[in-house]
Design brief:
single chain; 182 residues; alpha+beta; 5-stranded antiparallel β-sheet; 6 helices; globular
Length: 182
């Protein structure tokens, strides 16, 4: 899947997602007040921490969120039902991805050094399992988001990268949803 963040003339951003099934989706941003688009924070945080059950892992697996539009391609007639089932299956894991992306977004947006304690606390506010990342992995994810923030703010060119195929949400076989893929 290809993910491209485009600058919108109104000060927003627009995320263009080209999935492996050929469907091209547009995800509008509502982050005019932020320097760093929230969707960029999601994509980078989820990619760097290996979260396959976040926003972009769900999109890669066929989910379409309510605010997305199909720009090209023809979804299968079962696409809406598949999306709904998939989003229900990941459930709380999607909320955890939101909390994690929001935490990284905050530190990058405010040009503050990352606080692993704050990241651990954010995780603990939603997850019952042990914190799955080392301090070095948290720092590396933060550096990656900082670097793409600098790229995003230094040019009006789109910022694009390929989404790792291994980070796709799958309908879990049990009630326990895997939160991170290594």
């Amino acid at each position: 899947m290809r993910v491209e963040f485009q600058h919108d003339p109104r000060g927003e951003s627009l995320t263009r997602v080209t999935r492996s099934d050929g469907i091209v989706l547009l995800l509008p941003s509502y982050s005019r007040k932020w320097r760093v688009p929230h969707d960029l924070a999601h994509a980078v945080t989820e990619r760097e921490l290996g979260i396959g059950t976040g926003v972009f892992g769900c999109i890669a697996a066929g989910a379409v969120f309510d605010n997305m539009t199909v720009a090209s391609g023809r979804p299968k007639r079962t696409a809406k039902a598949h999306s709904s089932t998939l989003l229900k299956s990941v459930g709380r894991a999607l909320n955890i991805a939101e909390i994690m992306a929001g935490t990284f977004h905050h530190f990058v947006e405010h040009n503050e050094p990352i606080s692993t304690a704050a990241v651990r606390s954010a995780w603990g506010s939603m997850a019952e399992s042990a914190f799955p990342w080392t301090d070095a992995e948290v720092a590396a994810a933060y550096r990656a988001l900082r670097a793409l923030d600098e790229q995003w703010t230094s040019t009006r060119d789109p910022l694009a990268f390929d989404w790792p195929e291994r980070l796709r949400a799958d309908r879990p076989q049990s009630s326990r949803v895997p939160l991170a893929v290594r």
